[in-house]
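stage 2 :: seqdesign
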């Protein structure tokens, strides 16, 4: 009979862990919250919590499957010898140790020596484009340091069950290393209708990706249009790909139902329809 408290499978010790408290079946969100930011894949840099300072109406829900980076992030909300709210990495934010995926359960997580490159998908060395000759990719990102078993939650579960349905999601920022489109596609247009903007890394059509089966820019843009989102960035412009040796760019997709105030926090009078990265700020 399986041990309900802990298990060792293929040499990997796992255990259930109390990581957050729910209220009425949802993540407990303060009553005065006017909008949510949802962040998938934080590692420990370029995170969104720094952008909350000037946006008093927003609450941040973040996910990070690397347990050491989750611990690093959650330590930001703690004080020595003083108990604090479970799961908080910010006074208006929680972080959970899950990989957001297209399925609920457990999955192998391929940890790279440079762990910001870690992914649910196996890595490989690109065969064309700027990454083909990159020493950083060859020596770190395209390698697997170890494979870890991590809990997963589907984006459709987060949107449809975990988050209170009455609160709009102003920004969904995804840094899921090659599986970004998979989890969006699985969530579907109906669940994504409550999201104002999606910010995600996008692979140049002229480059081979680092991850098995990684979607390229044209596929991402076409699929996102089918899900109800459009972008001002172009797959045909080199200016859209300012990261990763010209192979990667951050695209912001806006829900087509939105007007000029799409993604705006109504508690900030001066905030308009600016790009998601500018809105969030950079906190590394």
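stage 2 :: out
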């Amino acid at each position: 009979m399986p041990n309900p408290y802990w298990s060792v499978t293929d040499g990997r010790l796992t255990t259930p862990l109390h990581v957050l408290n729910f209220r009425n079946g949802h993540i407990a969100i303060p009553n005065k919250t006017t909008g949510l930011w949802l962040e998938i894949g934080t590692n420990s840099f370029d995170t969104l919590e720094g952008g909350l300072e000037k946006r008093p109406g927003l609450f941040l829900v973040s996910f990070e499957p690397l347990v050491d980076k989750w611990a690093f992030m959650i330590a930001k909300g703690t004080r020595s010898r003083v108990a604090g709210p479970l799961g908080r990495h910010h006074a208006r934010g929680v972080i959970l140790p899950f990989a957001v995926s297209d399925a609920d359960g457990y999955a192998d997580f391929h940890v790279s020596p440079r762990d910001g490159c870690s992914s649910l998908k196996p890595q490989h060395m690109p065969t064309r484009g700027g990454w083909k000759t990159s020493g950083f990719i060859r020596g770190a990102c395209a390698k697997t340091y170890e494979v870890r078993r991590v809990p997963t939650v589907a984006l459709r579960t987060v949107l449809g069950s975990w988050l209170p349905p009455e609160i709009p999601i102003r920004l969904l920022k995804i840094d899921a290393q090659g599986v970004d489109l998979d989890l969006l596609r699985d969530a579907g247009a109906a669940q994504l209708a409550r999201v104002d903007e999606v910010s995600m890394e996008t692979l140049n059509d002229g480059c081979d990706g680092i991850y098995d089966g990684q979607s390229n820019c044209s596929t991402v843009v076409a699929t996102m249009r089918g899900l109800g989102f459009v972008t001002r960035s172009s797959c045909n412009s080199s200016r859209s790909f300012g990261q990763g040796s010209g192979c990667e760019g951050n695209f912001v997709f806006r829900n087509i139902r939105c007007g000029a105030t799409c993604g705006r926090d109504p508690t900030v009078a001066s905030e308009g329809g600016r790009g998601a990265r500018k809105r969030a700020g950079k906190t590394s």
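stage 3 :: structure notes
- The radius of gyration is 19 Å.
- Residues 6 and 39 are 29 Å apart (CA to CA).
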